[in-house]
Amino acid sequence: MGFLSSQPDANADKEKRKKQDEDDHAKFKDLNKKSKDDEDDGDDQGMGGDAVSSIVKEVIKGINEGDDKSKKGGSVTKDDVGGEARKNMVDSSAIDVVVAGVIGSPNLFDSQGTEDSITLSAMEIINEKIETIEGSLKKEKNLEANSYEFAKRVPNIGSALRSPFTSDFGSIGSSSKPKGEQSKLLAFSSVALDRIDDLQSKLFEQWFKVGFNDRNKIKKFKERDRKLKVPLDFAIMKIDDKMWFYDLLTPGRNLSCSHLDVCFYYLRKEIKYNESVNSFVNTTDCFFAAQIFEMYNEFVKNDCDIESVKKDSKASAYVAGFGMYCSRKWIELDNVLMPINLIDLAHWIMCIFDIRLRCLKVCNSMRFGRYKNSEKLVRAFAVMLPILLSHVNFYDQRKDIDKSTGYFQGKSETDPLEIVIVQDLPQQEQCDCGVFVIKYAEYFIHGLIDKIPKELDIPFVRKKLCVELFVHAKKKEVSGYESPSEYPGRMEKDGKKKK
Fold this sequence. Notes:
Elements: H1 2-40, H2 49-72, H3 92-104, H4 106-109, H5 122-131, E1 140-142, E2 147-149, H6 163-166, E3 180-181, H7 198-208, H8 223-226, E4 227-233, E5 238-241, H9 243-249, H10 257-273, E6 281-283, H11 286-301, H12 314-319, E7 335-342, E8 347-354, E9 359-363, H13 374-377, H14 379-391, E10 418-421, H15 433-445, H16 458-479, E11 481-482
Parallel strand pairs: 3-11, 6-7, 9-10
Antiparallel strand pairs: 1-2, 4-5, 7-8, 8-9
Helix pairs in contact: 2-3, 3-5, 7-16, 10-15, 11-14
């Protein structure tokens, strides 16, 4: 009798379990559809089943290998990723292998995350990728309720991924964090060191590819991933858009004034703080070039009257050493490197004002067609620079210059400069003129302009600039230091510093 009375309850339980199975099937069907939609979405880079399987196998393999090493008393060497810095991580035998896989495997870089920061632990990164894939992974199956749970592990934030930024500015294995102002930290490696640090390159790739889809011709990044939560600080400006790096990285993409200004700022720091640079040289920025063109137009409108050129102009402030970060007085220099954006031609060139020879040397990466007549393109600088020097009594303060020789002969102080076209420079094949200008300046600063390669490896040069600028900004962000204020102030009408 008891058995008969329990039969309806058994049927009810069977129906309940059947409904649970149907709900679970519907849940996985929805996840499969969502994964497929993500893969086909024009804004996403998607991930097929093969890629999912590859990641899963790699993660599981890494954990198993770590467990085997732990059982055998083995360990992962410090060369895998973070050295002694990984002592802070729990379950080190297993996790270290996975961390090494995240940094060393290019396949994982193709996965998409949602964070701008690269200081997350390796396990957190892996879990974020797994959670976006259709239910390929499951933590366990509850046989009684036929319900599934996705694998989700609580990560321990270790220092392995942070070590390239928190150590001695690039070396791995130290956790020291310099605080306060640091002025002598340079963004670019030596021009003679023609390579990219492998670990830094992979960290940049990992960060850059979050939300990136090169197949989309208009929107290269998902909007939520394109805008940075924490802007990258380059002292003279802060960059909060990944498209800035996309333009710098991609061959054939035009560079903006912000690209040239950032790179030339760090070249000025190179001049100031790198003891191997012995030249009396400095650079200007894009604003200075714009001021020269504006002054020249006014000068022509006033029938080339020298008195119409203001002595307290913004361009004059540059000559006096004001108005620009990491600036120097021209009276201390022999050469001034000037990036010039020829807006009408959408073309970058660089001029070298050789003060001792009194001439303007033009470095042009495209000397054909409408770009060939360099003399006409830079005439504004040849005319205005001598007038600016005259306004500050420049040559009265430079007794070391012999004005009876060279291009000084038969010239007054305000006569236009002689224009000289620099020959045998590497020439561009695509719209890479801005990159050529940066490399011309870098080689000149180090006294190697005559040794510049006849052909530049543009993809390599662009990536090197991106990696080193990115790493430098991340060092500042993670290590907690700031660049000191290198702004020299403004010039008053009498030529003195404004207090």
